[in-house]
Amino acid sequence: MKKILLALCLIVGITAVSKAQMLDPIQRAKTLQTVLKLNNEQTEKITGFYIKLNNKMLSTTSENPDFSADMAATKAKIKSVLTKEQNVNYEKWLAEEAKKFAEGNPAPSPQKD
Asked: H helices within the chain, ranges in order?
């Protein structure tokens, strides 16, 4: 019984850490800073966009919330602070992340040159 309880606690702990990393707005902005070569002003603005989205996601009490409109609005705000070249790279990065998610690896990762 103790082994089952220990295994359950381990699984819950790993899941909580994993979810926290996926939702960390500062880390998400830093990832984009690396991938898109953002300047400090762009990174600060994008961090703010992600913090607002994150706060909304964490404050919901619904069991099955739909954040697709909020996520689309955040992406639009992000695009508004990017250059044309960064926008192209952002679209590529989003496509790559969607592919990773579909393959079962949802954590965002910075690209390496």
From this structure: 2-23, 25-36, 40-59, 68-80, 84-102
Distance CA(37)–CA(53), nearest Å, equals 22
Contact 101, 71 (CB under 8 A): no
Instruction: Count CA within 13 A, CB hemisphere, residue 24.
Output: 15
Structural domain boundaries, residue 72: 25-113
Count how many domains the chain has. Answer: 1
Its pTM stands at 0.69
Whether 76 is covered by a domain: the verdict is yes
Q: What is the pLDDT along the chain (113 residues), one digit of tens a residue?
A: 766 655 554 554 444 444 444 569 999 999 999 999 999 999 999 999 999 999 988 888 778 788 889 999 999 999 999 999 999 999 999 999 889 888 886 655 554 44
Please name the residues in contact with 24: beta carbons below 8 A apart, sequence gap of 6 or more. Answer: 54
